[in-house]
Amino acid sequence: MGDDSSRSAVPATFPRIWAVIAAIPAGTVLSYGEVARRAGLPRRARLVAQALRAVPDAMPLPWHRVLRSDGRIAFPADSLGFREQCNRLRSEGVEVSATGRVRLAAAAMSLDELLWRP
């Protein structure tokens, strides 16, 4: 996702955000705002986007499982990133519309799933 050569010190909040994203199970999604909340950073959805741009290339992170609060993919519809995110989500069984929208209620993690998942 990112470019290691242009990166200086990573803000202390980024590893917390990355840990939340790394824990999103395949086939489920979270909004940028929900990732921020679970990282202990409520109302910091834009910080999640910044953290995703700064992910080291060597860090395998399921970035494609993070969506806008309305369930839409953030990339422009005609972009390579949009197509890549759609393909990755669909390969995990997530239903993505032609316009890049996911029904969050159907694909989001519930508290019960988080607490009782084997």
Automatic annotation (TrEMBL):
This is Methylated-DNA-protein-cysteine methyltransferase-like protein. Keywords: DNA damage, Membrane, Methyltransferase, Transferase, Transmembrane, Transmembrane helix. GO terms for biological process: DNA repair; methylation. Residues 16-94 form the Methylated-DNA-[protein]-cysteine S-methyltransferase DNA binding domain. The keyword Ribonucleoprotein does not apply. CDD domains: ATase (cd06445). The chain crosses the membrane at residues 17-36. It comes from Pseudofulvimonas gallinarii. GO terms for molecular function: methyltransferase activity.
